Amino acid sequence: MTPPFLEARGLCKSYGRPPRAVLRDLELELPRGGAWGLLGESGCGKSTLARLLLGLEAPDAGTILMEGQPLRRWRARHPGGMSVVFQDYTTSVPPQCSVEEILAEGFPPGGPRPGAGDLHALMDRVSLPRALARKRPHELSGGQLQRVCIARAIAARPAFLVLDEAVSSLDTPAQARILELLRDIRGDMTYLFITHDIQAAVFLCERLLFLHQGRIAASPPREDLFRTTNPIVRDLLDNALVFEDGG
Amino acid sequence: MQPCPQPPETTTPPAQGEPLRAPREKFSSSPPSSCPGGGKAPDDAPLLEARGLGVRVRASGETLVSDVSLTLRRGRCLGVVGESGSGKTLICRALLGLLPPSLAAGGEALFQGCDMLTASPEEARRRRGAGLGLLLQHPMTAFDPLRTIEAHFLESLRARRGLAPEEARARARAGLADMGLDDRALRAYPHQLSGGMLQRCMIALTLSLEPAVVVADEPTTALDARHQFALVRCLARLRRERALLVVSHDLAVMQALADDVLVLHKGRPVESGPAAEVLSAPRHAVARRLLESRRALSREFLRLRETQS
Question: What's the pTM?
Answer without folding.
Answer: 0.82
